Amino acid sequence: MRFFHSLITMVFIGTALPSIAGDTINQTLAIDDVANVRIESLRGQITLSASEGDEVSVKGELDDDAERFVFEREGSHINIKVQMPRHLAQGRNKRGSNLVINIPKHIKVNFVGVSTNVLLNGFSRSVEVKTVSGNIKASHLSTLVELTSVSGNINSHNLSGKIRLSTVSGNINDRDSSGRLNLKAVSGNVVARSRAEEVTVNTVSGDVETELSGVDELFISTISGNYEGNLALNNNGSVKMSSISGNLDIFFDEPVQASFKMNTKAGGRLINKLTAEKAIKAKYGPRAKLNFSTGDASSSVKATTVSGRIKVAGK
Hints:
Layout: H1 2-14, E1 24-30, E2 36-51, E3 55-61, E4 68-74, E5 77-83, E6 97-104, E7 108-121, E8 126-131, E9 136-139, E10 144-149, E11 154-157, E12 160-167, E13 172-175, E14 178-185, E15 190-194, E16 198-203, E17 208-222, E18 227-243, E19 248-252, E20 258-264, E21 269-272, E22 280-281, E23 288-294, E24 299-305, E25 309-314
Parallel strand pairs: 2-5, 2-6, 2-7, 7-8, 7-9, 8-10, 9-11, 10-12, 11-13, 12-14, 13-15, 14-16, 15-17, 16-17, 17-18, 18-19, 18-24, 19-25, 20-24, 21-25
Antiparallel strand pairs: 1-3, 3-6, 4-5, 20-23, 22-23
């Protein structure tokens, strides 16, 4: 009898109970040797919260159209999935899933959604979140962070380590990050107030605004968007900026020690508010260049534009 009781207990720990549309969920699994939690939810809101415990718990309500809820251990993974019909009827305004998932902070987390808003905080290992039209709000994540949305906004606070934030038509707002920061948007705007030592920003038609301190490497690339940034550049640091028709304006917080090489192609303007040197126009064609140095010139600032403006100044 004791053997059968233990067997039944093991079955319920390793396999989630069946759930249907609109059900209230309250389930738990021990992590044991689990290294990764994989989550999939088509729509609604998912809150991922880091814990100090040794179990994964899911609480909340399922999507009105959910066919099944999967919560199971598979080798070194735990899978959490709100299973939906392959073809949802158009024009139906149904409530999506609203789940709160608690996961030990040292476990890797992977989330995939479509029109799902994701809130997450506190993880210290590795986090990857991908959603299509949902918004992402993240805080206090470290080591490896990758957040991606197509048309949703990304708001992040106090991330550290290797950070990649990417969106197509949404906006990115990053605050108090540190480490290596990579921001990418197509038509969305990017705002970053960061302590990251290495920063890369790529946009097509969106505008970029940064406030950066203690930077070793900064790379800015825009096509038709404008860039404006305040920067504290470390000694032996490097700045590379390029634009096609957008403006590049950078303001240095302290007296910068750098060599400057700036040039325009097909028109554009070069403005130097750091020294008395002026731009030199090419004898033939619309090109111009401006080269000068400040202090011991231990750092390097290079900027190129096709038809935009480049401006360097003190804050």
